[in-house]
Amino acid sequence: MRSFLVALHGILLPALAAAAVDFARDIEPLLAARCVSCHGARTQMKGLRLDNRNDAVRVLSPGKSDASLLLRLVAGLEDKRVMPPVGARLTAAEIAKLREWIDAGAVWPVSAAAATGAKSKHWSFQPVARTAPPATRNQTWARNEIDRYILARLEREGWEPSPEAAKTTLIRRVSLDLTGLPPSPREVAEFLGDNRGDAYERLVDRLLESPHYGERWARPWLDLARYADSDGYEKDYVRPHAWRWRHWVIDAINADMPFDQFTVEQIAGDLLPNATLNQRIATGFHRNTLTNREGGVNIEQFRVEQVLDRAATVGTVWLGLTFGCAQCHDHKYDPISQRDFYQMFAFFNSTAEMNVDAPLAGEMGPYLARLSAYRNKREEILARYKVADYQPAWEARMKEARAFPGKWTDWDHAFDALTKYLDHALQILDTPPAQRTQKQTDAMTDHFIQNYHRVISKELWKELNWGEARKQLRELRGAYPALSEAPVMAEGATRPSHILTRGEWKKPAEPVSPIVPAFLHAPPLGAAPPRLTLARWLVSPENPLTARVTVNRVWQELFGRGLVRTPEDFGAQGEKPSHPELLDFLASRFMDLGWKRKMLIKLIVTSATYRQSSHARPDMDARDPGNALLSHQSRLRLPAELVRDSALHVSELLYPAIGGRSVRPPMPKGVIELAYGTDAGWPESTGRDRYRRGLYIHFQRTVPYPQLMNFDAPDASLAACKRDRSNTALQALNLLNDPVFVESAQALTARLLREQPAPSVAARIEHLFQICLSRPPSRREAEFASGYYQQQTGLFERDAKAAAVLFPLEVPGVSRVETAAWTGLASAILNLDEFITRE
Amino acid sequence: MHYDREYLRIQQRRDFFRSFSGMLGGVALSNLLGAAEAGGGNPLAPKKPHFAAKARNVIFFFQEGGPSHLDLYDPKPALQKWHGQPLPPSMSKDLNFVFVKPDAKVLGTERVFTPHGQSGTEFSDYIPHIGAHADDICLIRSMHTEAFNHHPGQALLFSGSTQFGRPTAGAWVSYGLGSESQDMPAFVVLSSGKGTSGGSMNWASGFLPSTYAGTVFRNSGEPILYLPNPPGVTPETQRARLDLIRKLNEERQYDTGDASIASRVHSYELAFRMQSAAPRFLDFSQESARTLEDYGVNKEPTHPYAVNCLLARRMVERGVRFVMLAHASWDDHQELNRKLKKNCAITDQPIGALIGDLKSRGLFDSTLLVWAGEFGRTPVGQFERVDEDPGRDHHPNCFSIWAAGGGIKGGQVIGKTDEIGLQVAENPVHIHDLQATMLHTLGLEHTRLTYRHMGRDFRLTDVGGRVVKQMLL
Asked: pTM for this structure?
């Protein structure tokens, strides 16, 4: 015990010399993070509150830290009791700070956010401030306003920024960041040869106009939207039309749709006056919630779960708040009451889901031209199998089963299946057949044929032979052109909303109306429908959060971490911004630019801050280990999709079409079988579709494509605000041995030998580096590579069979031994840390 | 500007040589590994538990779908008495089943229960091999859960929450304790049957780094995805390729000063060791004929599950921290007797053999074994189709699971259910309690094994959980 105190003083002394303890910086966040959840406004264990001085003073003993019960408890000096009881012990540094603060009288400024009733003082709820960029001593480094904020902060510490990255690094960095694809050797050469003062700005402009920009920047939005191509839960049904919303996102981002419009259309596009088809498609954002069709589940329960998810997601995506925490109780740290949460819930409680025809350009003509032929053939099949002889009686029994549940068990099950598997089943059932739309008629008949077996004998089912009918209908559908459809939201019948006790759907408490959270700004005036009002409120210039949260995410994409390191939490538990004035500058500039993302991105990527070298700064390792102050850029492992895209791109296998349906590239046998809700299996895409970019890979929630998960793609269950960048052996195996990357190495070899036909090993190695890494090899790298090449040719001369398998094609004038050795080398380069890293 | 690039390079070079002393000269692999690990390259480096652990490894027999406690572990003679009659309203008033209505008729069991071992714990006639280890088993008959659908139930069982996206038990344990295996991941999943409804979410790392996610090991074909070399690549050429990758990565580390490149080098070396180690797990040639026979490796219907059980032992021997055997499905809504018999015939003998094998090798006391599904099944029957035998519905209110091995006191029964196995009567044990107890045997205090995400410290036991002291030695 004594030695611990000695150690404590040992730490304390230099801390005193370095910087005085600051309550708002050092003490308040510590109390909030580690104490207040049990000793705060909501819960007061042992009757103690540590969120204001009056209540806390009895355990503080201001001026006498030796006597402070708080300090004794956190330091482990009380017998058998250590606080906090959960999580890691406080560090010696934290204890030292507490001690110093107490000894200095435990001054507790009343303006601090944790003080009772003062929560709205929290920084992120204050209006976005417009400040002039600070002055800096160094007058030459800054390229734009961003740099002055960054540099001034570094200068305050007496630190220096890093020099600009090499031009080869710069073009590779900005190409990957803006389009997700590495530059070609020709593009690199052009950039290196361009000596105009604005060569880099021109490059940025070109990249921002690339249609691949929309693909690159759609992906983080899909993460937030928990986008997937299947329902989730046990049955995990495929969502054949989900891609149509993704297509809209890519188009909208490529067209640089202002973020306020982008928001309004996704939250309430259907409610805009004279809503266009595209504005309705935008509402697919909230159709990405999970759906549970498991037999026996209560449909209302899972409808409520979806609405809860939509409310929480809006809180996360636009407000950057952990809104979902208020689902069961008032938020413990932020001023979000449970009522606020359910008032947000109420905005979405009356929405209805539907699919609408959403043809892409060129679909309508061929569809209409062959529609009547299709209808005739379909009717022929239905007539051949006498479907109409059985369906009316079945529908009548369904209505009885609905009216008298529990009377006939098998019909109960059949009815359950009807409501689960057929969207809007009851609505269709209640519409007399003559009044149904064609779509409704077809859907009901298809369901009937698929499910009639549930209520008839096995003998009759065999006799009907409808398995064959199903097959013929399916083939017919495949043979005729169809219109793309889109999952959208619409306003349905008004449902009363309530606070749900502990978030349980069966426990409604007080009624609530759709009202925006009271602790933020007031909603815009006007008589728009509530959901549209919410959408406009989110992007109101008075909203202190949306612009900050959004520019922070853009920053995170370009630097690997946000100015606020917790993009999902701008509340009291989140981290404070490293550069609050810069965050506000970017937020206000973003709004001034009309919420245009391309201009915001251009501002950032043309800054000197962004253009710094990403080389490590050993001098900064101890001083700023997380590089919060941006004394250099960061090396960032590419996201899962871009790992794939890069390999396909450099090997020229990539099929670069923009948008469209999801694809299923080959997947190892046995993967899809790991979950049982996957009756659709994994019908492999053929031809060019095998080589589409990663964001188009069909995402089956219960069994996602392995390469995506190996490289930390999110699981699409909740809004994902940032991705992990892990480093595992499975990633190594994936890159070494997955057929996608093996084929890439082969195709890369073919490209190399085509583009560099002269049989010079050195020239080919140089070109291979140029293609893959956008730079020539160093002397040592070239030596390693050629040493490997020579050794491999030696091996393959003894093993001609292996050589032939490794590279199964013939390249005129190049021996099998050489092609095999080049394939090995190409594969090695595709596995380099540098290849899958943005430097 | 005083920024001196040359100075920086010298600094880096010095640091580089400090952590990779002499490696560029081509030193032995083991040095490389040591260096990478010392440099923080290995997130799976073994970590000390919070307190002295009884168990070092876990084998989790996940019986997916909700096996019937009433026909396996919890004998209820009154079921026969009530067979064919609806439950009295006093018992059924607050019930909520998935398919069956509360007024459905009670379904008796055809199983015969007999006491086993010194302890005399009763087990059903379908699981004699498990029953044979009665004195090692701690049977809990008073488990309860909140979820009565499969996927949420499985999410709760493994991640402590019915909400998706949380880390699973195996991931938490890998995160807390790291790995002692030099050539396998810390958390391995062995699957049999038709696939689980939770799919890979049952072994996901959630918001923990994906390093801690379960790796699926298949018992036929490629044991691990993308494990075998591509056609034409021999071990020799693969080694040469990896050496080149390593050298070029080291060059890059020298040029950029980025220490994280060391962990990529480490990952490639682990991958290479996995390539030779993983297939060796499937090479049973050194196992005795007796062992193979005990497990039922070479016969049906035990074959696939026996292989998985034997693999589990071999992996525990080689330091794999957490092995999960997922077998699907026990979701017997219809034809209860036929289906239960089939699943028991597949799994009972291999599990019994595994327990015996672990004991004879001295691994039993350091390996925690858990047998559990996500819930139990209803005492009332489900009569789905007129031309089929009935089954039972999902039942979260009470069910049976068991634990054995490391830190667990065998030969006892914890908790009681009511006359017909409908509700817990004594000593309820929640899923979170099971999780807290599992972590406890591994030397982990469940409230201290936390990870900060979305502004709060998350843990496996969410906001609940208590260590069930009675389960412990």
From this structure: 0.81
